[in-house]
Target: YqaJ viral recombinase domain-containing protein
Amino acid sequence: MYSQDNWVSLKEPEDLPGSIGDDLRFVKQRSPLWFENRNGFRLTGSKIFEGLGLDSLKNLQKHHDKVIRKKDVQENISEIVQERMDHGTKSEIHAIATLTSKVLPVYYPDMKYFEEGAFHIKHDGKPFILVSPDGSIGQLEVGTAHEQTVPVLSCEFKCPFPNENTIPVHYTIPT
Model:
């Protein structure tokens, strides 16, 4: 069993007590409930670049067709891009472990890392943008009517794919 005092993980939606499962912040990412909620939004954090037209016109049109016109648009992700995304997903746990075991104890000893579900932004009362950060660094507010986290920093981990153009890491001074 894994245990880390400064790392708070989310539970599966069916394991959440009472109405807390209604708050997307506490819904575990990649769970069926998270995907179901994600589909109701015009923009997500991962598609905001295309959705705002900051990528190419072709990708903006594809996003518009899928989200506004409800067309069945297939996303063609190349094998190499998929491999890199899978690497990032698998390596995220190592980034969190480094943060909670090395960085937080030294720089933020009174803080914890909280895994996050999703946050939504509405426009004209309708769901508009859904963002799902990897987590947040904050404090647990204890002694109030109900314990709650007070986020101070948002966390989004990027785990670069290894390639042949990297500088070797030296654990000793080269001679």
In short: The radius of gyration is 19 Å. The first strand starts at residue 7 and ends at 8. The chain has four helices and seven strands.
